[in-house]
Amino acid sequence: MPTYLPLLAPTDGAVCCGTVTGSVISVADAERTARVFKALGDPTRVRLLSLIAASDDGEACICDLTEPVGLSQPTVSHHMKQLVDAGLATREQRGRWAYYRVVTDALDAASQALRP
Amino acid sequence: MPTYLPLLAPTDGAVCCGTVTGSVISVADAERTARVFKALGDPTRVRLLSLIAASDDGEACICDLTEPVGLSQPTVSHHMKQLVDAGLATREQRGRWAYYRVVTDALDAASQALRP
């Protein structure tokens, strides 16, 4: 369930999914929200999400992500784990390689959290 | 000038303000974007922004921010400096106190950067 962050007090009624309209964000919601933004707060992870999202079928093999970001596979795996743990990407192991997809709903929830 | 991040390749034409439609984000843009999300990646800073945004006139004195987050004034000042440096808040010194406002355009740009 996405968490919406009323950073700016809504003026036009209730917002989807549990936001307490017009109130200051709770400590628990602030922690959940900050966790997502922390995962986004690194240029390599931003690039990785962008690369995956721009892939032809919206899916990228880790074997295709190392070269564009110029990092080793363990380092890319580490960054991807943080994105997966934050709910921003999914990981599927197929044979030798891990394949990643962006979780569009999570990005949209993060986007909504910043909207007036 | 806000930077828009094509995390998800746009499908409906150009996006405002310099996004290269449908392409993978550049290293420079990823760095600028990650800097903003890094500032948002802390629960205290999320709470501070929310508190300021929810203030009656959209402005909050640092003297009114310390108690709600339960931190000392130097610590709150430190967090606020990171938000100001990231362009997410403005600071105005009036007499003894600093007063802060949320930069709505910057939040909106960050929100846009995550939109499909």
Automatic annotation (TrEMBL), chains A, B:
InterPro entries for the chain: ArsR-like_HTH (IPR011991), ArsR_HTH (IPR018334), HTH_ArsR_DNA-bd_dom (IPR001845), HTH_MetalResp_TranReg (IPR051081), WH-like_DNA-bd_sf (IPR036388), WH_DNA-bd_sf (IPR036390)
Protein name: Metalloregulator ArsR/SmtB family transcription factor
Transmembrane stretches, start-end: none
Coiled coil: none
Presence of keyword Protein biosynthesis: no
SUPFAM superfamilies linked: Winged helix' DNA-binding domain
Matches recorded under Pfam families: HTH_5 (PF01022)
Family matches, as NCBIfam families: HTH_metalloreg
